[in-house]
Design goal:
mainly alpha, elongated, two-stranded antiparallel sheet
Length: 163
C-alpha cells in the first residue's frame, strides 16, 4: 500500500508534511502498525497536486509468439560457445539477453567455454615475468593482451614465479 504523497508534485517540498513533517490540515490518513514503528498512509490531502508521472507498476510484457529460439539459432549459440565466445559477445551477436544465452547453454551442457589448451612456453613465461618486472603496477589483463594468453594464465605464471 503506497501513500499518495509519492505521486504528489509537492513531495519534495511545498507542503507542511514534506517541509517540516507537520500534519496537513484536512488530510485523511491511516495509521499502520509495523514492527519497525508506526507508518502514516495518506489516502486524501487538500494540498495534493498530481506530479504528472505514470505511477502504474511495471508489468513485464509477455514474449510474443514467433520470437522463440529456432533450432538454427540454438545451434549457432552453441557454435559460438565452442569458439570460446563470452556470454556478452554472444548476446551482441544474436540479439538475445545474456541470461537467455546462459539458460540455453546450461540446457545443452555448455556452461564452460571450450577453448584450445595452449602450453605456456619458457619464452612466453619469460616475457610475462619481464613485463611484470618492468612495472609491478601493470594489470594482468595488459600483460595477457601483450603475450596473447588469458589473464588467468598470466596470474598463474606470476603466482608460480613469486611463491
Amino acid at each position: 500500500m503506497s501513500t499518495i504523497c509519492w505521486q504528489c508534485g509537492k513531495a519534495c517540498g511545498g507542503c507542511a508534511w514534506s517541509d517540516g513533517l507537520k500534519p496537513v490540515e484536512g488530510w485523511k490518513i491511516q495509521h499502520i502498525k509495523l514492527a519497525s514503528g508506526d507508518k502514516i498512509h495518506v489516502t486524501a490531502c487538500p494540498e495534493f497536486v498530481r506530479d504528472g508521472m505514470n505511477h502504474t507498476p511495471y508489468k513485464r510484457e509477455k514474449t510474443p509468439k514467433g520470437t522463440r529460439l529456432t533450432e538454427q539459432e540454438m545451434a549457432y549459440i552453441c557454435l559460438l560457445r565452442r569458439q570460446g565466445k563470452t556470454y556478452k559477445e554472444m548476446s551482441k551477436m544474436t540479439g538475445r539477453t545474456t541470461d537467455r544465452i546462459r539458460r540455453i547453454l546450461r540446457l545443452k551442457g555448455l556452461t564452460k567455454p571450450i577453448r584450445q589448451q595452449r602450453n605456456v612456453t619458457p619464452e612466453v613465461r619469460q616475457e610475462i615475468l619481464r613485463l611484470y618486472a618492468m612495472n609491478k603496477d601493470v594489470s594482468h589483463q595488459s600483460i595477457a593482451e601483450a603475450v596473447g594468453f588469458s589473464q588467468t594464465t598470466v596470474s598463474k605464471v606470476l603466482r608460480e614465479a613469486y611463491r
